[in-house]
Amino acid sequence: MQYYRYADQLQRNGQAMEVTVIDTDRVSHGKRTSWYTYEATFWFKNQGRVIPIEKADYERLKTPNSRLAVRYNPALNDFIPADYDPGFSELAVPLFLGLLLVLLLRSGESRPQQARPQEPGAEAAAQRPIG
After folding, report:
1. What DSSP state is assigned to residue 35?
2. Left if phi > 0, otherwise alpha if psi is -120 to 50, otherwise beta: which for 121?
3. Where does the record place the region Disordered (predicted)?
4. Cα-based distances in Å from 97 to 1, 2, 102, 104
5. Which member of 41, 42, 60, 67 has the lowest number of beta carbons within 10 Å of its beta carbon?
6. Where are the domains of the chain?
7. d(Cα 75, Cα 10) in Å, to the nearest integer?
8. CA 23, CA 129: separation in Å to the nearest integer?
């Protein structure tokens, strides 16, 4: 949720500007999955900056010297694409793991502790005097 609040703050308080994209990248999130995130790199004040982009922007920005509308928040010194929607795919894994943790904790609480059955003769042997 913190990520969404941060993205929202950038969108609401950011100054509109355009940057020239020098590189794009597609980042895979696993060897056996087709889940990718996309990034764009540009220069700002002699410093390379990388921001997340959507797949449609990734395809469009492959051409050299492509322009991207962004929002820049000087207080955070960070950028976000003007039309970027973080979407819920970023929340899927943390929500799933959180739900799994809650279910595991609840199932551990709800199980009554069962007394172990004793072997026949174990009670009589425990009551016999030693020696």
Report:
1. -
2. left
3. 110-131
4. 14, 17, 9, 10
5. 67
6. 2-91
7. 10
8. 84
How many whole angstroms separate alpha carbon 72 and alpha carbon 128?
A: 83
Question: Taking phi first (over 0 means left), then psi (-120 to 50 degrees means alpha), and beta for anything else, what does residue 104 get?
Answer: alpha
Tell me which residue has tokens 């020239």: 20
Name the token pair of 62. 């492959």
Output the tens digit of pLDDT for each of the chain's 131 residues: 677 788 788 888 889 999 999 999 998 887 777 788 899 999 999 999 999 998 889 999 988 889 999 999 998 899 989 888 766 555 666 677 788 888 888 876 655 556 666 666 656 555 666 65
Straight-line distance from the first to the last Cα atom of the chain, in angstroms, rounded to the nearest whole number: 68
